[in-house]
Amino acid sequence: MKKKLVSAMLCAAMVATMVPGTAMAADDATADFAGEELSILVSTGWMDNRYDETIARFEETYDVTVDLQTIPADQYSDVLQSKLSTDSCADIFWIQSNPFAIGSVIVDPEKYCIDFTGAEWESKMPETRLSSCTFNDKLYGLQIWHNSPEYVMVYNKTLFEELGIEIPTTYAELLSACDKIAAEGITPWFLPGADGWQHQLAFFQIGGVYEEATPGLYEGLNNNTATFADNEKMLEVLGQFKELSDKGYFGEDWIGTDSSNMVNEFGDRACAMAMANSSYIKQLQEETGSDDEWGLFLLPLGDNDTFPTNPAGPTMFGYKGTEHEDLVKAFFDFVTTTESLQEILDNSPSYTNLDMNDDGIEQHWLPEEEEFMNSIDKTKMSTPVLQTGTKYTNDYWSNFGADLVSYCQGTMEANDVLKNMDTNRAEAAKVAKDEAWN
Amino acid sequence: MNKKRIYPSWFLIIPIALYAIFFLLPSALGVGYSFTDWNARSLGEVNFIGFENYKEIFTSDKDYLTGIGHTLMFTVVSNIIKLIPALLLAILLNEGMKAKGLYRTLLYLPSILPFVIIGLIFKSIFNYKTGLLNVTLEALHLGFLKQKWLSDLDVVWKSIFGVDAWRGIGYVMTIFIAGLSAIPKSYYEAAQIDGANFWQRLRHVTLPMLSGSIMINLVFGITYGLKVFDIVYVLTNGGPGHATEVLSTYSYQLYSTGQYGMSTALNTILLVITAIIGVFVVRQMSKQEVQQ
């Protein structure tokens, strides 16, 4: 009995000595980095102020300094490429990722990226986002982004009710709604063509409907066995777009109008709907002073009923050539804690949620978003939008937009718009030495 | 005596070195890269591909040739609409006009404004619905003159030329004024005694004596026209559609999509066209000067 007691006491003593030892070890782990500097290369708009508090806590916790190198968006790609090719990259760098971006932007992740496969935070990222962070089954990136409905139709619910218009679910219904709205002297659909990047969303955000019309289309477009040209559904959608343009339903001069006055147009009831993110409703509520209610519906061109799932988003990577690999790993661990994620969300006025598998996060979904999301069949959320679900398409966003304008102005045929996209994608594939195109 | 006035030739070393490092070398590298497949994904691996980029430019479905045509058209028109009014204004403001200094300053001011500011100002002025131009026309009961200034295919080039002239006339005028002030008054007095009217004085005295200023303005104007980018980019970005694309906007687009080799090939074409036209103009003007 005595022996048992002695051994139990000895065990307890051993455990007791280990406890401070462990604590010491933990302290040592943070102390290991003391005085080090962690550099982060990022484009404007990708971190903004939303990471400031988290970074400050990280600096305090590990007694390190974070050197945030924010580069203007239009120069970022060139700066990153030159830093990667000259082996002088920051410890952490960001790219605007999508399921093909690691291969096309970073080109050789084995050479440039820290392999995070097996990291605890991997399970925090939803499956759809993992596709933008992995390459050849290895995890390289961390994407912390929101999942608000992006570029769906935001509409004036009150105005629709007053005019007796139901939410359009087909193109015919959309056309009929536009007829009624235009008859009131209101622009049915505010489309800021002069921005150069918004109007083509009407074509690309409904990728699911093209895939449904031609099953296997995405796969075909990605292995060069299918083309945009001659695709009947795409031609149908382009035709519908031009019809709306010809009828003046995008406004008198949509090609020459930018989005700077869109809020006022909504506030003055000069327009009834527009493509926007769901968070735009918050902006309308705050800035227009209008009592009108706002809602969301799916873009009904081509009788679309699919949700614009978009796995793309700014994504951070650890630079393999860093001298602070453990500190980089510690940073990735740190920003994926529930506390950090909540902090990031709370410091992002334009986000209503974070798309992370973490029940501890208190999301700020808008009631309109919840209503909209609940109305969508979950099976209609599986196909990503065309621009990020197919290779090289997003690279020619502006060119397609210009072609679309030319088509609406009658200087180009619909099928030529699609053919140009095929030509451009083939050029990009050639540059990338994509075997499917060679 | 003369020897004292001639500086030793080693004085040229620094300027020549600076010129070589910051102009000749980058230009030569640019030409060299136009024969390679250099792109955003090459990450240091650049391969020589001969004339492939040039072949692509002249045979591609893309409208690079229209871009070249637009560039040449811009060069011709922008020079005409700036040179003639600028010359007339220079003559007007070279005479003993009241407050001519103020007018000269006012006319010169737009040429020192950055293109970005000009773009912002005129995009706002040209806005179809809320722009100052259309609103003023409406207020003056001239609503029938309202235009979609930057989105109508028949109007957009005129808008660009208008803004370009507004910006550039003062600069051209200043060079003319400098030339005019160097013409001896006695030439005009002699012509007047001979009974020459305004147009005869202009044709037989002013223009021949201004050939130096005309040449400077022409060479500057032509090189500016061939390299045109900013004014088009800030006003239309090559649009609506591709209606106002010029060589430089295509080159910019190619650079943006990471096709650096192709982009430098387009710039090399621009360099060759500019050099040919520049040399031709200088030769012609020099011949005329010799004849005079």
Automatic annotation (TrEMBL), chain A:
Residues 1-25 form the signal peptide. Pfam families: SBP_bac_1. Keywords: Signal. SUPFAM superfamilies: Periplasmic binding protein-like II (SSF53850). Transmembrane segments: none annotated. It comes from the Bacteria. This is Raffinose/stachyose/melibiose transport system substrate-binding protein.
From TrEMBL, chain B:
GO terms for cellular component: plasma membrane. Keywords: Cell membrane, Membrane, Transmembrane, Transmembrane helix, Transport. The chain crosses the membrane at residues 12-35, 72-93, 105-126, 165-184, 205-226, 260-282. It comes from the Bacteria. This is Carbohydrate ABC transporter membrane protein 1 (CUT1 family). Gene3D superfamilies: MetI-like. GO terms for biological process: transmembrane transport. Residues 68-281 form the ABC transmembrane type-1 domain. Belongs to the binding-protein-dependent transport system permease family. Its main location: membrane. It comes from Murimonas intestini. It is a multi-pass membrane protein. It is found in: Cell membrane. CDD domains: TM_PBP2 (cd06261).
